[in-house]
Design brief:
Elements (H helix, E strand, L loop, with lengths): L17 H8 L1 E7 L9 E8 L6 H30 L2 H12 L8 H10 L10 H27 L7 H41 L2 E2 L7 E3 L17 H18 L4 H31 L6 H30 L18
Antiparallel strand pairs: 1-2, 2-4, 3-4
Helix pairs in contact: 1-6, 2-5, 2-9, 3-5, 4-5, 4-6, 5-6, 5-7, 5-8, 5-9, 6-7, 7-8, 8-9
Length: about 350
């Protein structure tokens, strides 16, 4: 039986109740139905399946605490990485090996990020992954770029006797990071794509009156919608993955012209990765699709932009120090000072 399309009302985010909004944002399958009113309702859609109900609010609080702790660790590393360059290699190296496991890209935090994204459709109460998930993924990408480059600079100063073993450990660690980033991006798309599709269905449709999720549209409803075009499985992610792969190749490759060329390509890809992360953050912060969590969105992407700013300041300080070397002969050890009688 063909549905009879009644004069519907416009469906906006302010008019939709919480149940209808949850249905649209969690819908995983939209069914196209035939319609008799080709003029007013050329496309008629109904939501067939949705994700399960949300977890209790304490799960969101735990995810918020984990994301905050991961950000603070990354912030400390980015803020102190310039000082560690001038510190003693032994102390800084041991500190770097310890903090490696605490970063979002490390072997402890990255599996937790993947688990959070895998359960993301049900974490949607106080700290919705559908809106804050991209900021968490950008935090993982930034931690991989910043820490891995510092690790590479320190390992290049090591002697050749243990270089092969350290290169092997480095390759395994970077390969696991690449795999974790790809899995995290894929799971995040399972969260944001249905959410963006439902957002498009709510913004550019009107209720037909046949059911709670039956809408009429003037154009087809595409997967992911047209309101927000962000995807976690994107060029930004693959650019960062490419940087990590080039770092493995540069560590394993022998010295020569080929290695110099690979390092130049790697440096270019690193700069492009930072640029793409910045553009993604600005785009998502400007769109702000989640109408109930403006403050959370502003804090999330503002924190990521702060990390990018600190990285730019670090690069500027390195460039300035290379042009005007630091006068190390002016450094005085307090213990060497002779106390007056």
């Amino acid at each position: 039986m063909l549905p009879t399309i009644q004069p519907g009302r416009d469906l906006t985010l302010t008019e939709a109740d919480s149940h209808a909004a949850a249905t649209f944002f969690k819908c995983t399958s939209w069914q196209v139905e035939e319609t008799l009113d080709l003029l007013n309702c050329p496309y008629h859609y109904v939501c067939e399946t949705t994700y399960p109900a949300n977890y209790p609010p304490y799960v969101d609080i735990l995810v918020l605490l984990f994301a905050t702790a991961s950000y603070l660790v990354t912030l400390v590393i980015v803020a102190t990485i310039a000082r560690s360059r001038y510190s003693s290699s032994s102390s800084s190296s041991s500190t770097q090996r310890t903090t490696r496991y605490l970063l979002p890209c490390g072997p402890i935090s990255l599996p937790l990020v993947i688990l959070t994204f895998a359960k993301g459709p049900q974490i949607n109460t106080l700290f919705p992954i559908s809106s804050t998930g991209p900021a968490i993924l950008h935090l993982v990408l930034i931690s991989a770029l910043v820490f891995d480059s510092q690790e590479e600079e320190e390992e290049e100063e090591e002697e050749d006797e243990n270089k092969k073993k350290k290169d092997l450990r480095y390759a395994l660690f970077a390969a696991s990071t690449v795999s974790g980033i790809l899995h995290a991006s894929l799971y995040l798309d399972y969260v944001v794509v249905p959410y963006y599709t439902g957002l498009d269905a709510m913004k550019n449709s009107r209720l037909s009156g046949e059911c709670d999720s039956c809408v009429c549209r003037k154009e087809e409803l595409v997967v992911g919608g047209k309101v927000v075009r962000y995807r976690a499985w994107s060029l930004t992610t693959f650019m960062v993955v490419g940087v990590l792969c080039f770092r493995i190749i540069c560590r394993i490759a022998a010295a020569g012209n080929n290695r110099i060329m690979l390092q130049r390509i790697k440096g270019l890809m690193e700069r492009l990765s930072w640029l793409f992360i910045f553009l993604d953050c600005v785009y998502l912060a400007a769109k702000s699709p989640h109408h109930h969590h403006h403050a959370t969105l502003a804090a999330s992407f503002g924190a990521i932009l702060l990390l990018i700013l600190l990285h730019l300041l670090k690069q500027a300080s390195f460039l300035f120090s290379s042009i005007l070397p630091f006068p190390t002969h002016l450094i005085v050890n307090r213990n060497s000072l002779v106390k007056p009688l």
